[in-house]
Amino acid sequence: MVEAEIVMLRALNLVEEKYGKDNIEIVTILNNLALLWEEMQKYSESISLMKRLINIKEKHLGKNYSGYIHDLTLLIRIIKNTTMIDEVKLIFQDVCKIDESNFIPENKNLIRNLYTLGEYFIKEGMTEEAEEAYKKAINIDEEFCYGDMSELAIRYFELATMYYQKNRLLEAEVYLRKVVEIYDKQTNINHKEYKIILINLADLLIDLNKIDEAEGIFSKIVELDEKVLGINHIDVANSLGDLIKIYRSKKRYVEVERLSLRAIRIYINYFKLIQLLSEGFESAGTRHHLARICLITDRLPEAEKQITEAWNVKHDAKPYITARLIWFKIALSFLESKPLGNYLGQLKFILQKEDAFMEWTMQPVLDHIKPQITIKQHALLSALVAAMSNKINLEKLNVIEEWRNAKPEEID
Known about the structure:
single chain, mainly alpha, 20 helices, 71% helix
């Protein structure tokens, strides 16, 4: 590649001497050299050439010349490999010049690059630029729908999440509803994805004090779980927990009792089934599931026994299982008013591993034990579950003093 670079630079010098540095005749070699430098990871030089190429074309062919979006798309592709924030902002100013009314389907790659640019802005904490990049891409995508509605749903959800984090709840609601509309029109719905979207919308509606509508969505989730998983599946019990919280807030205690009894019956039956299936199979994973059921059904000594026995065979467990066992140790310490020891340090050590994270549905447990522990303890347990479910939430634990001061401790 070095030899090719030398040849192209000589060719560029010859063309510049013959036609001048701003002549339209040199844009082809500028483009080729920019691509070569991109391949050589000379991103700064490549970006500079592409910007020069665009300026030359605009001078000779006018703003929004034919091929402008193609050139801009290439520039975005190169810029996403850099950390040059000022350069990114300059590129984004060019992005904002795009007139959606002049967009043609052949330029659809720009949409994906705009999304990529939005992701870059999010990573760099540039939320305003990310929002504008996403909205511009979404506007084009909605106008020239290419049939990939699942991709559009993802971007709606990301924009809704962005708005939610900025406490712009009404705007977050608009885009979450758009996601739900897309899923509602699909014939083969991914149950797990659809359920997550519905839960997010219901939680948002609660924040907006639209309790009745949130109740309707949680009821829909229960019906969905029953239809897909069966009426006695443990996920039905988990979903009933969300509905129970709504009824409790509305002081509808008859429904609270009825649904609570049903959820408990499901948990007990699940507990018996797991015990039956686990005979002769003493895995940490199985026992941590049993402990979860024990906590919900107020069998604290049994929960402690399961965790102790799981800890004894943890050497065969994956890191995310070990992390969960430590979480149970912390929760049991709170429930029994025992010293915490350095469980947080052990958990901090485990969470340094990439495979220590796995989605974990623990809200029913957290809701059940909430009256038995302090607000501060409940907040810590909730934050730990969120972090263990998704690594992106790990940084948020640093606002908690106990976690911040805990020193990582390797587990024997």
